[in-house]
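tool=predict chain=A
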Amino acid sequence: MNIICRLLYTFLILGLFSCAGVNKNYSPVEKYASPALRSDFQLLRNILESKHPSLYWYTSKDSMEFYFQRFYDVINDSMTEQQFAWQVLAPLVDKIHCGHTSVSFSKQYVKWMQGKKSSSFPLYFKVWSDTMAVIGNLNVKDSLFKRGTLVTSINGVRNQDMIRSMFDYLPEDGHANNINFIRMSANFPYYHRNIYGLSKNYRVTYLDSTGKENFVLLPLYSPAKDSSKQSKSLAKAAKIVREKKILRYRSLVPDSSGAFSIMNLNSFTRGHLRHFFRQSFKAMKNNNVQSLVLDLRNNGGGKVGLSTLLTKYIANSPFRVADSLFAKAHTLAPYTRYIKGGFLNTLELLLISKKKSDGMFHNRWLEKQSFHPKKNKFNGDVYVLTSGPTFSASALFCNAVKGQPNVKLAGEETGGGWYGNSGIMIPDITLPNTKLRVRLPLFRLVQYHHIPEKGSGIVPDIYIGTSYEALLKGYDKKMKVVRDLILSKKVQSTLNANQHLKPALQ
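tool=predict ok
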């Protein structure tokens, strides 16, 4: 045991030293020669083909080989890190249709970008279906593009074609692109800049006050240099964020009506959730709370153990999480040095998985394990708010409770796959030349309750889509619909109770 501990300590120290250095002379405009880029590409292909458990889950082997060759052939000249990431790796990785397999810039690039603002297309949009409505404008003096203005094309590219094209660069589970509508809505200028490049002026077509199409030339947004005043305001904002950090991850508050409580849960990793769940459900039981709105719209997942723990507080009967859970390999060799925590991840793979007759390495514990509800479980009505960012471990929770009589999923299709997803252990691959990083899920998890078709997210019981009226007026449509349902149900319950009392009073 002492030998193992010493080995682990040695590898940890070596790992820290190998990651400590960051190139102070880094330049984002530096170009890498095509042989170096092709070497990185080939290494990534080898790792994906030998270690990714779901490389051919949604795309056939023949098709993936076609895409590997197609994007390899794109590398016929030198490229910057940004060009290689967005022109080659991002569209390649998208073809896997795995939301946990994504590309990110090198640590040097991320460090270089800290505190910097980039030139970009100036408008932010709420994007849904084939619609793009303005929700922000970097050109603060522009009075034309106000909140709610509907844009129909940019530089001659119609909305539906632009959205479809941009989706080819963004990862998702199966074909559950609802998460990508949210990504584009969160930072449209970022994605447009990286996918379409920059223009000195943008020809933007929009619907005017009469509902007719018109166009205008919008100049490229170029940020002014930061002033000391801006720096102070940023520091103040950072302090506020630190003070309220815990509320970014979870909270429990009563609704102003007193008819229900709202639990906002944005992570299954941070926020001291075991203590939070224990205290919250105990308090709701003591206060006789009859209805709970559980908001998972921004919960991107995290630890399966914490997702399962929440399920124990909601489920009314024993449940299972995984029908199957397996890795393609039980070691990361011969690519250990390119994968973060390679030695430790290999050790964990050896400890938690075992080879079965299908040639895969299964985690038999989670495949067999049945979980039981908590004593303090919630027995009232539960409304789970879902959206595209409801992903990974939060999708596991939604699947486990969906169909329970007192539980209703409300909102939009989850971004997390209904049939299952790949994850559990997700280290980064670091490509040796460009230092670009690609996330590598090591296990495929198929959810316990099967659905007829794989590829979608979890479909809500009560669909509440994007509301243009709510966007204009600035209120939360999904919360309002659920709140109205709870209040109307409470009124009806009161009326029914009064009806039963009438004979006794007479």
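The first strand starts at residue 31 and ends at 32. The CA atoms of residues 17 and 496 lie 70 Å apart.
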